[in-house]
User: What shape does this take?
Amino acid sequence: MRTSIWLIRHGQTELNKARRYQSSSDHGLTTFGQHQAEALAQRLRRTPFHAAVTSPTRRARETAEFVLGERAAPIVEDARWGETNHGRWEGLTYREVRERFPEEAVARFADALHGRASGGESLAEVQARVLAGWRALLQQHPGGRVLVATHATPIQIVLCHLAEMSPALHWRWRIDLASVTAIDVYGGSAIVRGVNEVPRLWAEG
Assistant: This one.
């Protein structure tokens, strides 16, 4: 029995465009982000999803809604698929973080697994909740085709888990905005069918 999981990263938001830390900030998609979501919908138009899971953010849900279109698949929000909580770094650029919180930034990046922004999460904590979400997904939808609209870090963590890599190396998996990562699970084994496929944007006219 095969369970097919299609992990998609949401389309562009204004914070993505400005290269700012973004986790709980609830921004919707930009116009370009909507075009990206439409391209995802075109790429996945023939996939008969049985269910969809999204992180509790507007950008993820909007992307899922574009992809599902008229399908009757129910959408369920699951906080375990949220992006890393950046605490007081939320909304700042990397440069602004280094200027405002230099010691905190050094400490966080010196300990890839357990370092954190003040008020935020460590990578180890994110890994624990994402893998709990992954296991729940497989238990709840055996033999199904499930769309998961989420963020870069959760997708990277799942890939690290399947490849038996440390989550501290998650950055080695490039996960672009509005990309598709497809995984088939057979019992306790998984086959990664594709990683970070970015559908082509078609110009109008």
